[in-house]
Amino acid sequence: VRINECSHLRSYEASHSELTVPIRVGREIIGVINAEHVALEAFNEDDLRALKSLAAQAGIAIQNARQFEELKRTRGIVGARTAVAWMGMASTAWRHTIGNHATTIQDRVKLLRQDIAPNDVPDIVNEHLLTIDQLATDIRNTPITAPLSNEEGVSPIDVNEIVQERFKQLKKRYDNVALSLSLDPNKVFSIRVSAEWLKRAFDILIENALEAMNSEPQKKLIIATRAVDQKVEIVVDDTGRGIPDNIKSRILKEPIEKPEGAKGSGVGLLIAQTIVQAYGGDIYIEKTSSTGTTMVISFPHETPRIQKYVVPSTYKALLVLDQQQCSSLRKFKDVLSQLAEISIATEDQALGAILQDPYHAIIVDSLSVGSLTDFIDRVLERQVDAKVIVITASPTWRMTREVLQAGAYDYINKSLSPKELFTVFKRVLED
């Protein structure tokens, strides 16, 4: 909105001109940028374009800030990438060390069997040897080095399948525990996570529950899955002794110091929490008392991905840059190819191409032409309504004003992410 005379309004007695543009995030208007001046008719079309460009950048910045705060809230103080990178390095070391120890145990069991005549081995000793060998095999087969990246090796998985698989293994191993499974067979609870690391986090909760019931005469473990709002949850409910009040608030936040000889320090839960948070989830204590504890692993439900934006095939964009020097060429090509038919040209080629064919957007690298303002002038001489977008690695306010006064539609930073560039170019093409 541009008002060239507003002194008659009481709230604008000191101003005679006003310029206001909306700040948008997508289709949502989240605010405005307002400029006032004491002179009459102080703002022109160049000022309007400059303020529009500033509002667009402000919208992107605010959106990024919102996403960053959401990321911190969801994944806690340990950033997802940091946690994932740490687990990747640690798991490689663990796999090597643990695998070697497990192999050594199996070799020793084998040698022991060779040294003792079969008829001389008591049944109880033979049973223990079989158990040791089986445990070593389980350790070796436990996948520690699963894919650990939010981009690679992670896919939607059915939580019910993971839980059922683990439940069957528990039934075989723990015949002294009353195990119960509660799943809704008519629902597919899908989440996006590394299956192997989800199993590890789930196993930690199971191990803690079994340990809590170790001295209890009645051992009952209930495992369930459920959907709550837009989340998928795995529930582990035991009949153990519960979590003492004096450490309940510290669980999942820090290691717990316990008397010498006492089992458990909360480190396992911290590891499980780190794993789950790395994939956007969380672990929380639903309830605990002297009769048992209910722990919950919660993940966002995997929803169908939003389809790619489809634009009319009539959109055409021209990239004006030096293909040998522009390190961002691939990024711009990848983004623009989702929105329009693109052509790449040098300065001279572009000026010739514009005479033959109109373009909806002309994106020019500030370092790929002799003079930006001259290039913009020559483009607008050939195509009056051309939308020229200048891209630069070192934006300045002075340069912004110069190119916008010359008639450029927008002036953007090369360092914008592909998602941000997509938003900018989509707005340009649709405007």
UniProtKB/TrEMBL annotation:
This protein's GO CC annotations: plasma membrane
Reaction(s) the record says it catalyses: ATP + protein L-histidine = ADP + protein N-phospho-L-histidine
Key word Isomerase present: no
CDD domains, per database record: REC
Tagged with keyword Calcium: no
Gene Ontology terms, MF aspect: phosphorelay sensor kinase activity
Residues bearing PTM 4-aspartylphosphate: 365
Known EC number: 2.7.13.3
Entry-linked PROSITE patterns: HIS_KIN, RESPONSE_REGULATORY
InterPro entries reported for this sequence: CheY-like_superfamily (IPR011006), GAF (IPR003018), GAF-like_dom_sf (IPR029016), HATPase_C_sf (IPR036890), HATPase_dom (IPR003594), His_kinase_dom (IPR005467), Histidine_kinase_KdpD (IPR052023), Sig_transdc_His_kin-like_C (IPR004358)
Residues covered by the Histidine kinase domain: 93-303
Keywords of this entry: Kinase, Phosphoprotein, Transferase
Signal sequence extent: none
Domain (Response regulatory) ranges: 316-429
Domain of life where this protein originates: Bacteria
Name the UniProt record assigns to this protein: histidine kinase
Protein species of origin: Candidatus Entotheonella gemina
